[in-house]
Amino acid sequence: MPLVGIARLASQSELLEAKRAVEYFEIPTRSLLNRTKPNMPFRWTINPYRGCEFGCKYCYARYAHEFMELDAYAFEDKIYVKEPPEFLLRQELARTPKADPIAIGTATDPYQPAERRFRRTRAILEVFAREKGWHLGLITKSDLIVRDLDLLGEIARRNVFNVHLTVTTVDEKLARLLEPRAPRPQLRLQAVRKLRSAGVCVGVNPNPIMPGITDSERALDSVARAAHEHGALTFGGGPLYLPSAAQKVFLPFVEREFPHLAARYHKAFEANIHLSRAYKDALAERVRRIRERYGLASGIIEYRPELWAEEEQMDLFGVADEEGRDTLKTGCNSPSSTTTCPKS
Ligand code: SF4
């Protein structure tokens, strides 16, 4: 039967815009703890999701979707949620040495929008909030993390625990371009303050630092200053690197938004996914100088948690610093200092 009236009008209407549809899938999980390559600051990583809806233009982790025969853009639209993790995680922790540092959220954001609904990160934190004596880290650029302040504070009392908020820029307009669906930088900085108030060691990383876009002294200084003002304890950043799947998204983005940088970006990344040693060294020096300006540490804060696994043994072997505080040298790699995580 031919369409009539409003049905006919609707069928003939021109498409103005299609709202982005994100699909979520549950993916079977054989192992939650993934071993890292040597020389990484953590021995194990946990990523509760594959894919990330925040869709940062520079995201290096897009390659992971290519393993599933999906393209670099599907990384933002097809999100794979790992099976409920509690049982598997407890099993894997039982055969993992406690001196092995574990990081949550190294490849995809553990507080991306899917977490509101599927709560896999929270389930993982619930396991660690009943554990003691682990060396843990968590990386995010979402203020959703404050939903879990209760668990995060408890984990920090029982384990050496460092949280890192990623803030690439404090320029809201630039952040919107680079990280179109991530929470605003100001919201992330407010999360830093709340985490400190909950007794969690928290730092800010301006990662990845992008040549000509976020790497100026002024740009990095403004992130470090804001981090310091919001109570962050650490500041450390590394340069952009672009595996081929990431290049497919980032290089066209640079051509569109930063045409004056396009030729230099193509040249820098045509033969190598990493920037040159000379650039990395100069950048590391700039970050070090800025960090010292605000009295921030690099990397991981080591401290003695209030409740520690080997409490009795450590009472025997604990060392007292010159101010008489007990400090604990943990097995964490790349420690910047050994200190008692100051309470707010
Ligand atoms: S938040 Fe992290 S994982 Fe997610 S898109 Fe951005 S860089 Fe990638």
Question: Mind explaining what this structure looks like?
Answer:
- The chain is an alpha/beta fold and 344 residues long.
- The protein is 37% helix and 15% strand.
- The protein is built from 14 helices and 14 strands.
- It has helices at residues 5-12, 63-66, 74-77, 86-94, 114-118, 120-128, 149-158, 172-178, 185-197, 217-229, 244-257, 262-269, 277-293, 311-317; strands at 23-27, 34-35, 44-46, 49-50, 78-82, 102-104, 135-140, 160-166, 201-205, 234-235, 300-302, 319-320, 326-327, 335-338.
- Helix 10 links the parallel strand 9 and strand 10 (234-235).
- It is globular.
- The termini are far apart.
- The structure holds iron/sulfur cluster.
- Iron/sulfur cluster binds next to loops.
What attributes does this structure have?
seven-stranded mixed sheet, three-stranded mixed sheet, 14 helices, 37% helix, globular, binds iron/sulfur cluster
User: For the residues shown, what is the average pLDDT?
Assistant: 88
Based on CA inertia axes, which overall geometry fits? globular
Order of strands in the sheet with the most strands? 2-3-6-7-8-9-10
Structural class comes to: alpha/beta
DSSP summary, beta strand count: 14
Q: Largest sheet, if any? A: 7 strands, mixed
H-E order: HEEEEHHEHEHHEHEHHEHEHHHEHEEE
Oligomer: single chain
Helix content: 25-40%
Beta-strand fraction estimate: 5-15%
Contiguous helical run count: 14
Bound molecules: iron/sulfur cluster
- How far apart are the first and last residues' alpha carbons, in Å? 71 Å
Spans of 5+ residues with little confidence (pLDDT < 50)?
312-340
Rounded to an integer in angstroms, the radius of gyration calculated over CA atoms is 22 Å
